[in-house]
Write a structure and sequence with these properties.
The chain has 684 residues and is mainly alpha-helical. A three-stranded mixed beta sheet has the order 1-2-3. A three-stranded mixed beta sheet has the order 8-9-10. A two-stranded antiparallel ribbon has the order 4-5. The chain starts with 5 loop residues before the first helix and ends with a helix.
Length: 684
């Protein structure tokens, strides 16, 4: 916990990058951003299920759950970090080398014997060394304990604990404030290690682990103020949906703790990021309300405080709640009545008939938009059902296609792509005509536009007293039209995925796109949580309906035959990479011989499988977003400034295409794009 703060590491990374020191920059990026974050673990969960693996999501901590599984002989061996020993796992496999057919492992008895300590002393020594829940004991760090050290002496922690129990060392802090801060963290950490709740295999109930380790001849006692650390106990239905991967941890955490904490620091901290993080509370509130109406009324009475990373002091993210809700500016007040929803009536026969009419094989966002538009225009049965008066609930035939259709319709409704009276909205109408494979990225573009962050303006630093690294030479407002067009083109095109080889991104990193994609990341996360909540709201009426879901119902992994399609039953809103925008920037700023462009493109981006057709796809996506914006303008939406900026940017793109003789080729297009491309070329 005394390591350099994340923002300092990222600032150093960008500075190294500006100087051309890519290796040093990569090290700083690695320190400041965890690649195994909560979002990615969620995607891995569904990927493994799609591949036929048995996977479950621990309701609280994976370490405690694995300790219980090992104790109950549910698993033969546990693989993971050595810290699992603290949860009383007796043996942990640390590393497997499949090529050499060997593995490395650590054994509790051997560790304790080597150091000449018992299990409780091991736990205390590790806490003194520092964890994500408690601070490092100040006298273990070289030099002044107030300064940030570069090294930790773990042997010293062992030596200290051998001399006296942890409680004795708690009396030796330089001041009372530091003492209280450390003692609080140590107490919380010990409770989490000894009593974390797990899903018990014998009873299928989530309750504290207990019994791991023995103190003074008796089992560990769960403290009376346990809920101050872990929060309220949740209904079994919530735990069940978590274990099955329907709900990620954020919504249950909000109900349990009464707080929604966004503690992830972005790669680039901008004012736009901070504003969007707060603006997205509207979607978070909808997600909360979709679930709370199925819970005990006590959950609706508890406000949920929204906290951001800039409001979290270092080391305090996991500690008990601070200020009361009345003192917090951003508070969600759950309401079981706030989200009424349209009374959708989805039958298997109607779904199959519509799939036949549209000549498609899968229920997805495009399918539902087209279905609703057709029913609205023809006054069909689907539209008649949702415009009936009365307090009816949504119903559906118990099959996966009908479940998928209902979840999609609820999501579109909560995103205001379908009006609350069942009619069509301007944005929903524009999105209806997007190609099937571009519907999701186009939705993201329109959502960014809705929140006012899709434009060509330079982004502003999140902290006025901490400007962007000067070595990046990032432009400040106001900028010329060419720079605005360049930003707008690369940002929009960056929303389309690229086909990449199984390799690291060994090309340039773009500062503006890194900042822009921080916005995209939190938006997609909010949309994914809204999708989860819509699905959970349906399933909580009858939990046996979970069996309708196929193994990879939220698997975001690209299909082998088409990188723009997934195995998922529902929208996954996979975390983006800015690769396409970086390649587009290379195209738009290329100054070499036009005859060498394709060769230089392949050499500059060796990790891209097919950069040429992917770039052509990005051009088509740009035109589709531009079509949507123009369509919304014509329908009376206030987006004339963006439409004009896109017109100027489109002119820049066309000029570059002419110079490099680079246009979409019919052989690289999909069936629903050919007519559109001819129209674009004819118009230009």
């Amino acid at each position: 916990m005394f390591l350099n703060r994340m923002d300092q590491q990222m600032e150093a990374a960008w500075t190294y990058l500006a100087r051309g020191q890519k290796s040093e920059a990569q090290k700083c990026f690695a320190v400041s951003t965890s690649r195994i974050n909560g979002d990615f673990v969620y995607f891995i969960f569904h990927h493994l299920r799609q591949r036929g693996m048995e996977v479950m999501m621990a309701p609280y901590f994976a370490g405690a759950q694995l300790a219980h599984f090992a104790e109950q002989k549910v698993v033969h061996t546990v693989f993971g970090p050595p810290g699992l020993l603290l949860f009383n796992v007796q043996r942990v496999v640390l590393q497997i080398d499949f090529g050499r057919r060997i593995f490395e492992w650590v054994d509790m008895k051997t560790v304790l014997s080597k150091w000449g300590i018992d299990k409780d002393q091991l736990v205390d020594a590790c806490m003194l060394a520092g964890t994500e829940y408690c601070l490092t004991y100040p006298y273990l760090t070289p030099g002044n304990p107030q300064k940030q050290p570069t090294k930790l002496n773990f042997d010293a922690a062992i030596g200290i604990i051998k001399q006296a129990p942890l409680i004795n060392w708690m009396q030796t802090f330089p001041n009372e404030e530091m003492k209280n801060e450390h003692v609080d963290g140590y107490c919380i950490c010990k409770v989490l290690v000894q009593s974390s709740p797990v899903l018990h295999t014998s009873t299928c109930v989530v309750r504290p682990l207990g019994g791991t380790g023995v103190q003074n001849g008796s089992g560990n006692q769960v403290p009376k103020d346990f809920r101050n650390i872990m929060g309220e106990e949740l209904p079994s239905s919530i735990y069940y949906l978590m274990v099955q991967g329907v709900l990620s941890h954020k919504l249950p955490q909000a109900f349990a703790r009464g707080e929604w904490v966004d503690k992830s620091h972005p790669l680039v901290d901008t004012q736009e990021f901070r504003n969007l993080l707060i603006d997205l509370n509207d979607y978070r509130e909808k997600s909360i309300n979709l679930v709370v109406k199925h819970l005990h009324s006590s959950f609706a009475r508890n406000p949920i405080v929204c906290k951001t990373f800039w409001e979290q002091p270092p080391g305090k993210a996991h500690l008990p709640q601070g200020a009361p809700p009345s003192a917090q500016p951003n508070v969600i007040r759950p309401s079981a009545e706030a989200v009424k929803g349209l009374p959708w009536k989805i039958s298997a026969e109607a779904v199959q008939a519509e799939m036949k009419r549209q000549e498609v094989e899968k229920v997805d966002m495009k399918f539902c938009l087209q279905w609703h538009a057709n029913e609205f225009n023809t006054d069909g049965q689907l539209y008649k059902d949702i415009t009936r008066t009365g307090d009816e609930k949504p119903t559906f035939t118990k099959d996966k296609e009908s479940l998928s259709a209902l979840t999609h319709f609820m999501l579109l409704e909560h995103l205001e792509l379908i009006a609350d009276d069942g009619g069509m909205t301007v944005i929903g109408n524009a999105l209806t005509d997007s190609p099937k494979h571009l519907t999701e990225p186009c939705l993201i573009a329109l959502e960014l536009m809705k929140f006012g962050v899709l434009n060509g303006e330079p982004l502003e630093t999140g902290q006025p007293d901490r400007p962007f690294p000067p070595q990046m030479e990032y432009p400040q407002q106001p900028v010329g039209s060419d720079q605005k067009s360049l930003f707008l083109l690369t940002r929009v095109m960056s929303l389309v995925p690229m086909r990449l080889k199984v390799d690291m991104w060994n090309a340039d990193v773009n500062f503006d796109l890194a900042a822009f994609h921080a916005l995209v990341r939190i938006l997609k996360r909010a949309l994914r949580q809204l999708t989860e909540a819509s699905l959970a709201s349906i399933l909580m009426e009858d939990l046996s309906l979970v069996k309708l879901l196929p193994p990879g119902f939220l698997c975001a992994s690209p299909a082998s035959r088409d990188h723009l399609q997934t195995h998922a039953l529902l929208p996954t809103f996979m975390l983006p990479r800015a690769c396409m925008g970086i390649v587009a920037n290379f195209f738009l700023t290329y100054t070499g011989d036009p005859a060498d462009f394709h060769k230089d493109l392949a050499e500059r981006f060796p990790c891209c499988q097919q950069p040429t057709p992917d770039l052509q796809q990005a051009f088509l996506f740009w035109e589709d977003v531009r079509r949507c914006v123009e369509s919304m303008c014509e329908a009376g939406l206030d987006c004339a400034d963006l439409a004009e900026d896109m017109r100027l940017a489109g002119r820049m793109l066309l000029e570059r295409q002419k110079v490099l003789n680079f246009f979409p080729e019919p052989s690289n297009l999909r069936g629903d794009e050919s007519a559109r491309v001819k129209g674009v070329v004819r118009e230009n």
